[in-house]
Structure formats: C-alpha cells, structure tokens
Amino acid sequence: MVVAAVAELWKHNEEIVTLLKNNYDLLIAAFLAVAATFLVSKSWSKGGARSIDVPGRLGLPFIGETLAFLSATNSFKGCYEFVNLRRSRYGKWFKTRLFGKIHVFVPTTEGARKIFTNDFSYFNKGYVKSMADCVGPKSLLSVPHESHKRIRRLLSDPFSMPSLATFVVKFDQLLSQRLARLARNGDSFKVLEFSMQMTFDAMCSMLMSVTEESLLREIEKDCTAVSEAMLSLPVMIPGSRYYRGIKARERVMERFSGMIERRRSGVESHEDFLQSMLAKDSYPSTEKLEDAEIMDNLLTLIIAGQTTTAAAMMWSVKFLNDNRDAQDRLREEQLAITRKKADDYVLSLEDINSMSYGLKVVKETLRMSNVLLWFPRVALNDCTVDGKFFPLDYRIEIKKGWHVNIDATCIHYDPVLYKDPLQFNPSRFEEMQKSYSFIPFGSGPRTCLGMNMAKVTLMVFLHRLAGGYKWTMDDLDLSLEKKSHIPRLRSGCPITLKAL
Ligand code: HEM
C-alpha cells in the first residue's frame, strides 16, 4: 500500500514542482505571514500580554463627543447607535470623552470578568450627583461598600423563594384578569403602557400592599418624575427635570414615612416587605434597616424593577411575533401546563420551574433586547483590562478616573459567542454559555437584586399571553423611543388580543 502511494506521488512529482514554481511569490508571502504571526505571538507571550492604548477620539476638553452622544440619544435609532458608529471606525475597543470623562467601552468576556470580579476594589460605580439625590443617600445605588453589603443582605427578603412563590400567585391573578378584560374589549392596546402599569402595581402590592387605583397612579407619577431626573443637571431651577424629580421624591418620602408611622402605631398591618422590615425594630443595628434606609430602598426597588421588567415584556411580544416557530413551541409548552389544571387555576412556582422552553424564551429576549445596554464603572487606580484577539492576548491600559463601560450589548451580539446573533433562537440556550457571555443582570457583588423576580414575572406573562391568546401587531415601526437609555419601541408595541 505504502509503495503504491509513493509511486503515485512520484508520478505527480513533476506537476507539483511546476505548481510550486508558478506560485513562488504566493508561497513566499504565505511563509512570511506565518513566520511573522509566530514571532509576534511568541514575543507578546514572552513577557505576558502587551499593553496597548485604546483607539478613539477624545475631541475638545470636557465636550469631547458629548454632542454626538446626545444627538444619538435624541434620535429614533437610540443611544447605542453612538457606540455602533465608533466601533465601525475604531474596532471593538474604543474610547471617547463624554461630559468631561473618558469612557472605554469594554466588549469582551475577559474584560467583563476583570471588572465584575474587582467591583468595589479596583472599580466602583461612578458617583452621579443627580442619581444619588433622587434615589437617596441610603439607596443601594449610592452607599459605600460596607453599607452596601449589609443593606443588600437585609433587603434580600422579598426575593427569597417563599416570597417569590407568593408574588407569582398575586401577579398571575392580576395579570390574567387584566388580559381577559383587554381581550373582551377587543381594542388595540400598547404593550409597553400595559406592562409598565402591571409591574408597578405588582411591586407596590408586594412591597407595601398599596392596591388602591388612584393612590397607585399618584405614586407612579412621582416615581416616574424621580426616575427621569436621575440623569439630569443637578440644579434646582423650578420647572427643570431635576427640580421636578426632587419635589416628587419629597412627596414619595412623605408617603412612605406616613405608612411606617401607621404600621408602628398598629393602625395598619399587612403581610408584605415593609412589615417584614418593621418586624426587626428590636433587632441589633447590624440586623435591621434604619427608616431612611427602608424608604430610600423602597423607592430604589420600584425604580430599578419597573422600567426594566416592563421593557423586557414588550420585547418578548415583538420577538415572538416575528418568530412564529418559537411562539408555537412556547404555546405548546404552556398549553401542556394548562391542560392539567382546573378552569380558574392560578400558577405556582412549581409550574414556573417546569417551563423549560419558557425560560429559554426569557433568556433570548434578555440577550437580544439588552434592557441595560452597558454597565458603567470608574477605575479607582491605573490598571489594565484583559483583551483577546486571536492569536494574541493584550492588555488595555486604563487610567485612574476613566470610566469603563461593560458593553453587554456587544457581548450578547458577538458572533463568536452566539451563532447568528441577530436571529431570535431560544433553543441556543440548550447549550452551556461561556462565563460572562450572558450578563443581562450583571454579575459580582452588584448583580441585579431582582433577577429572580424579573424572570418569574416574565415567565408568568409569557404563560398567560401565549397560552391564552394569539395577537396581531398593530404598528410595525421599528423606531426607538427618543431620550431613553433603555431601548423601547417608540410605538409602545400596540397589539390586539384574540382568545385561543
Ligand atoms: C428584566 C428586568 C431587569 C433587568 C434586565 C435588570 C438588570 C440589572 C442590572 C444589569 C443590574 C446591575 C447593574 C450594574 O452592575 O451596574 C441591576 C441592578 C439592580 N437591580 Fe435589576 N434588573 C431587572 C429587574 C429588577 C427588578 C424586578 C428589581 C427589583 C424589584 C431590580 C432591582 C435591582 C437593584 C436594587 C439593583 C442594584 C443592585 C446593587 O447595586 O447591589 N431589578 N439590575
């Protein structure tokens, strides 16, 4: 056999020599390219990865590229267009200057790991005065490391499994009634408006048992004003966003304080988050929250939970509408659950745990919608962040005071991590994800506190929607809302429901 193969090769010897002669230039070039890659990667790996400066344009002092950023934020393409444009100019890593600060957008899982695992030590959330003024000095978003750890631990009660089980029942009852009413009316309605109200009402009921419609709307109006002022110019000029937000905060705090007083005096008592906090009044100070901590964090939970969850609900409707196979498969799974139940059933946490395809739809929705586009941190010292660009490793130099934005959107759309990233394909989550490649809730000590609550809320929503109805989209416009840092359809995603 071997002899025959050598004879065959010899027969073609002359052809091979001619081929080599004719492509001499090509061969030399290929040889040089291989040698250069080998030498460079060798020399880089010798002393570890090399440090490189990030490309990008810093522009004029202070102003930098702020105007371009504001113009993107103020367009129907959304503020991430600013990032997309720079990435097409400079590559995956780039830096820019916004509002006087240098920002580096961190597009890799290695970079995300470095920042998340060193949160509070090498990096911290940037202090934004308007944000701290709005949510309050005792909010999880404002406090320093030590208080953060304690407050986070003491706030975890409403997110425990027994509390989530109660939440699922309440949310399911509220949601199924409201969807049934909308389907009976047969009118078109905006999913975004609906989901904003649903999440707000459900959270107020869970946190402090507020269920009266007019009171809910008043508190919601104030919370929205506070939320809108979080990123504004912090000057108290009557009529400005900041002024309206601070005034709204004062009213909210007054309400919360009244509620606490009524509960302490025994006039009111409920089974909810607020009551569980007040039940610790006689505990040592390390094991309870002060009133100011309770109030600032009630507000923080509402603001952090409402807009995010509502936006994800809206995107799930849009993605499922555009991907009928996924919608059919989801419906089949949900109907299998419904068939085992009585007519007026209410979902339980066990039902939620059995929705394996539903969970994948939730994950794929969060991957593609990127409710929080990037997560900002500030470098507390000069440092480097690891990058990778096959076959080379490199370190990106970051200076003290620079802002590093973990770019969850870029990571979630990276074709190396997600095949056909623009395709809505929940089944991709059958495979294990690489660490830090799926980060819609962040990671590390600041991981979203409401992560499980958000997931079960979305699963109940998908169950009731796909298992109970079909729908038509009444506006196909893809433009995004202006001036919003959470991507949301400008149309609000209007649909009409038809019961199955
Ligand atoms: C789909 C819905 C949600 C998404 C995508 C989301 C996403 C996130 C992300 C990415 C962070 C970390 C940000 C960072 O590292 O800078 C975060 C933090 C936080 N989230 Fe959520 N969230 C959602 C729903 C909720 C809900 C329902 C609540 C509460 C009811 C909540 C409460 C919080 C709080 C309190 C923090 C601050 C945690 C800390 O600093 O320790 N979130 N969220």
Automatic annotation (TrEMBL):
It is found in: Membrane. Signal peptide: none annotated. Pfam families: p450. SUPFAM superfamilies: Cytochrome P450. One of its GO terms (biological process) is brassinosteroid homeostasis. PROSITE patterns: CYTOCHROME_P450 (PS00086). It comes from the Eukaryota. Its cofactor is heme. Heme binds at residue 448. One of its GO terms (cellular component) is membrane. GO terms for molecular function: heme binding; iron ion binding; monooxygenase activity; oxidoreductase activity, acting on paired donors, with incorporation or reduction of molecular oxygen. It is a single-pass membrane protein. Its main location: membrane. Gene3D superfamilies: Cytochrome P450 (1.10.630.10). Keywords: Heme, Iron, Membrane, Metal-binding, Monooxygenase, Oxidoreductase, Transmembrane, Transmembrane helix. Belongs to the cytochrome P450 family. This is Cytochrome P450. It comes from Linum tenue.
